[in-house]
Design brief:
single chain, about 180 residues, alpha/beta, metal ion binding, Rossmann fold, 3-deoxy-manno-octulosonate-8-phosphatase activity, lipopolysaccharide biosynthesis, two-stranded antiparallel sheet, 8 helices
Length: about 180
């Protein structure tokens, strides 16, 4: 990536007002565990949560768009103050467009992070398309930026830090912990 490419991504990052996240394969490792009584369990990374909180503190709204339904997603979103959770939507780009209309945003003001083919159209349409390290090849190739971490292993935290650094906000937020 050239210096000009990096500069272009930083300029685009400064325009981001909303980060939309997929769940399975992004906020989780993509695995689903069923208990003996049939309950579905998911593992979320706490570091991702801190990254989301820091991004929100910097004025970027975070939303979730997922193709499945899960009570754990609602619970995790509530813990993190994520106000918009869209579940059961296979067409993620349509869901994102509807969210943009609600929030009076343009797609260019959005970032979307995904890992698999249902995320591809949204990744291509937004101002910044983000992928996780273990995303399918089509997503990695379409994304403007990919994490070094796999989904569920800090990829969202890495993306949040990258966005905050690109926007020139990371140092101030990090200093709040010193």
């Amino acid at each position: 990536m050239t210096d000009k490419d990096v500069e272009n991504l930083q300029l685009r990052a400064r325009e981001i007002r909303l980060l939309a996240l997929d769940v399975d394969g992004v906020l989780t490792d993509g695995g689903v565990i069923y208990s003996s009584d049939g309950a579905e369990l998911k593992i979320f990374n706490i570091k991702d949560g801190i990254g989301i909180r820091l991004l929100q503190k910097a004025g970027v709204e975070v939303a979730i768009i997922t193709g499945r339904h899960s009570e754990m997603v609602d619970r995790r979103a509530a813990e993190l103050g994520i106000g918009k959770v869209i579940q059961g939507r296979a067409d993620k780009l349509t869901a994102l467009r509807e969210l943009c209309l609600e929030r009076d945003l343009q797609l260019a003001q959005c970032a979307y992070m995904g890992d698999d083919l249902p995320d591809l159209a949204a990744i291509k349409a937004v101002g910044l398309g983000l992928g996780v390290a273990d995303a399918v090849a089509a997503v990695r190739n379409a994304a403007d930026w990919c994490s070094l971490a796999n989904g569920g292993a800090g990829a969202v935290r890495e993306a949040c830090e990258w966005l905050l650094n690109a926007r020139g906000q990371w140092a101030e937020l990090e200093a709040g912990y010193q």
